[in-house]
Design goal:
Strand content of chain A: 15-25%
Largest interface: A-B, 32 and 27 residues
Helix content of chain B: over 70%
Number of domains of chain A: 1
Number of strands of chain B: 0
Oligomer: heterodimer
Cofactor (chain B): heme b; FMN
Keywords (chain B): Cell membrane, Electron transport, Flavoprotein, FMN, Heme, Iron, Membrane, Metal-binding, Transmembrane, Transmembrane helix, Transport
Order of helices and strands of chain B: HHHHHHHHHHHH
Structural class of chain B: mainly alpha
CATH superfamily of chain A: Oxidoreductase, molybdopterin-binding domain
Membrane topology (chain B): Multi-pass membrane protein
Radius of gyration of chain A: 20 Å
CATH architecture of chain A: Alpha-Beta Complex
Protein name (chain B): Protein-methionine-sulfoxide reductase heme-binding subunit MsrQ
Organism (chain B): Kushneria aurantia
Largest sheet of chain B: none
Structural class of chain A: alpha+beta
Distance between the termini of chain A: 50 Å
């Protein structure tokens, strides 16, 4: 057997960390208080923003303006986590405002108007207000974070998001001592969202989600405005959405128009429909089954007929080291 | 003429399989082709079941025996698509993990109901030949009324899969309810009178 050893004197492209990325990573790691995200830079750091089929940097002015200063690969996924092709991540979506079939959002979301867009931040905050996306992002630099996305339906993808920590926004609006939870609301606009026109939908529009304040302040929680080096396509929740990688995908609410800091645990869309199937927390947990199917394993997409690509689901979707402390002492069988 | 009709029905029933297989082969089945086939074969089986159950009322209404001639064929197609649906579940969702199948069969109502419906269709399929008809005699008809129970279970199976919007399910349920209503004796007799048998008409 021949084993090829690379000459140590020749450095490959993947050995060089651009200075900007190096600093961004140091800064992020410091900010995240050594959360164990310091996995080695994977191959092709220089090509970080190059994704097939994607027009790099495309988006509205508030996005393009920030594009030169993106912290590429501020968080990377595991060694076995191959990034899902852009075409799959944008044509296999659950966004029931645009229909219940996985292909519906890609077909129907084109008509959604995302400019202008404002987000109301209210409730238990010292500085409430209505912000456009530019103001919402503030001065924080956009970070690329490659997260695993685990759908409650037992499939998963790996997606490079672009966004800023939600904590940055929350700190700016100064939560009061009464603020214990954060409630998020999606746009309700039946004229552009055919799913909201259905008379037989179970969801009580607008779609609502919620996090405990400490979950919302966690450095992994991302206020997201882009993916694959461009702004969010409409079907993925343009112009601004949440990404909470250790929870099932439906917690990562899309096309957000309102963020409210509240004292009591808010009602959320899915647990209102069926509390037995969808809890408020909905942390990824292989030991707590959905009543209709097992959560022990997942199908990593894309798969094919000949390789279903079944892998074991990880506790907290593999972010256990970073987030388990949020739930210490809690019975996760009870608070699913 | 009738042979051509039967062949045409055969070809038409093969089309969904060919179409979905082609979609997957050409990469249009999406990132999860197994799930794509699972859902589409399941819906095709339900549609074919409804088509099969519409043949008797259609024959009563039109007096064309062509409808009766393809009833067994379409029933067997229904069963075939249901089997494809099951195979997709075993292969692509469970990944042939049979312990997981055992778990599902014990704990998950929609799987139990779907499985029961498939067993019923299996019983109907294996007794659809002339030999079984002869042997079963009068009991054959009673046995094949089980198709109504299978339809109810299939709809329940579908209903329990729905997560966010029951609009699509409702379409199928309404068609099923309509087809069942046509079987209420009073309705069924009226249906036969729309175009009475020629012999009867002459006598009248």
């Amino acid at each position: 057997m021949l084993i090829r050893l690379r000459d140590r004197r020749t450095l490959g492209e993947n050995d060089v960390t651009p200075e900007a990325i190096y600093h961004a990573r140091r800064r992020f790691m410091a900010g995240a208080a050594g959360l164990g995200m310091a996995a080695a830079l994977p191959r092709g750091a220089l090509a970080a923003s190059n994704y097939d089929e994607v027009e790099e940097g495309s988006g509205p002015p508030w996005f393009t303006r920030r594009f030169d200063n993106v912290a590429w690969q501020a968080v990377t996924a595991g060694a076995d986590d191959t990034i899902t092709p852009y075409g799959d991540a944008t044509h296999y979506n659950n966004f029931y405002e645009f229909g219940t079939d996985k292909r519906d959002p890609a077909e129907n979301a084109g008509q959604l108007t995302t400019e202008p867009w404002t987000v109301e931040v209210d409730g238990e905050v010292g500085r409430p207000g209505t912000f456009d996306v530019d103001q919402l992002l503030g001065e924080h630099r956009l970070e690329e974070r490659i997260y695993r996305l685990r759908c409650v339906e037992a499939w998963s993808m790996v997606i490079p998001w672009l966004g800023v920590p939600l904590a940055d926004l929350l700190k700016r609006v100064e939560p009061t001592s009464k603020a214990k939870f954060v409630r998020f609301q999606t746009l309700e606009r039946p004229s552009e969202m055919p799913g909201q026109r259905s008379r037989f939908a179970y969801i009580d529009w607008p779609y609502q989600e919620g996090l405990r304040l400490d979950e919302a302040m966690h450095p992994l929680t991302l206020l997201t405005v882009g993916m694959y080096g461009r702004s969010l396509p409409n079907q993925n929740g343009a112009p601004v959405r949440l990404v909470v990688p250790w929870k099932y995908g439906f917690k990562s609410i899309k096309s957000v128009v309102r963020i409210s800091l509240v004292e009591d645990q808010p009602a959320t869309a899915w647990s209102s429909i069926n509390p037995r199937e969808y809890g408020f927390y909905s942390n990824v947990n292989p030991d707590v089954d959905h009543p209709r199917w097992s959560q022990a394993r997942e199908r990593r997409l894309p798969n094919s007929l000949f390789s279903p690509n079944m892998i074991d689901t990880q506790m907290f979707n593999g972010y256990e080291d970073q987030v388990a402390s949020l739930y210490s002492g809690m019975d996760l069988q009870k608070y699913y | 003429m009738l042979l051509a009709w039967r062949l045409a029905v055969f070809a038409a029933a093969l089309c969904p399989f060919a179409w979905y297989a082609w979609q997957v082969y050409s990469g249009n089945g999406g990132p999860e082709p197994g799930q794509y086939l699972l859902l589409n074969f399941g819906v095709t089986a339900l549609i074919l079941l409804l088509v099969t159950l519409s043949l008797t009322p259609l024959m009563k209404l039109t007096r064309w025996k062509g409808f009766a001639l393809v009833r067994r064929q379409l029933g067997l197609w229904t069963f075939s698509y249901a089997v494809l649906h099951l195979l997709c579940y075993l292969l692509f969702i469970l990944g042939l993990d049979f312990s997981a199948l055992g778990d599902d069969l014990v704990r998950r109502p929609y799987i139990i109901v779907g499985f029961a419906a498939l067993l019923m269709l299996l019983a109907l399929a294996v007794t659809s030949n002339r030999y079984a008809m002869k042997r079963l005699g009068k009991r054959w008809k009673a046995l094949h009324r089980m198709v109504y129970a299978a339809l109810a279970l299939v709809l329940l199976h579908f209903f329990w899969v729905v997560r966010a919007d029951m609009g699509e399910w409702l379409n199928y349920a309404l068609v099923a309810a309509f087809l069942m209503a046509l079987r209420i004796p009073v309705v069924s007799r009226r249906l036969s009178r729309v175009r009475p048998r020629r012999g009867v008409a002459r006598r009248g």
